[in-house]
Amino acid sequence: MLRKALSLGLVLVLVTSVTAASAQQVTVTVIQVRASNEGEKHVDPALGGLGKRLQRTYPYKNYKLVGSQTLAGKIGGKLNFALQGGMAMALGLTGYVAPMVSMRVVVTRGGTQVMNSDLRVGSRRPLILSFPWGVNRLIVVITPTVR
Question: What percentage of the chain reaches a pLDDT higher than 90?
Fold first, then answer.
């Protein structure tokens, strides 16, 4: 009898945890930066502290903010972002176990997948991805925030 009660209690706790996680609101900000070696050395002031981080990570002369978008959804939902260079990014919000957000990231260019990965990132922690864009590079910074 006690064993049945304990396993029923465990099932109730698991169901409650899954329901609570799926009810989490996630706001995702995507910042797009064009990195190039054209012209003089310059970091777009609009990038703030992110500019210095990108300089340490990617060896280019110029970093220009070319787009920023914020969308919100719930765990289990999907967010779609238009990226520069004819690319698109779909973020499937697959899970949340504090403080980590799990996402399926699918990036396409002209209908062809260039990335399809399951990633985990901490809430309010930027995840930096990079893609070739002609002779330049498109740097995509994804920051999920769970509320």
Answer: 82
19 part of a folded domain: no
Extract the tokens encoding 6: 């304990």
Residue type, 73: G
Residues 10 and 69: beta-carbon distance below 8 Å: no
Q: Which tens digits make up the pLDDT trace of 23-35? A: 699 999 999 999 9
pTM to 2 decimal places:
0.84
Which structural domain, as residue segments, surrounds residue 98? 25-146
Range name among 3-7, 12-16, 73-77 with the lowest pLDDT average: 12-16
Q: Is residue 4 part of a domain?
A: no
Q: How many domains does the chain have?
A: 1
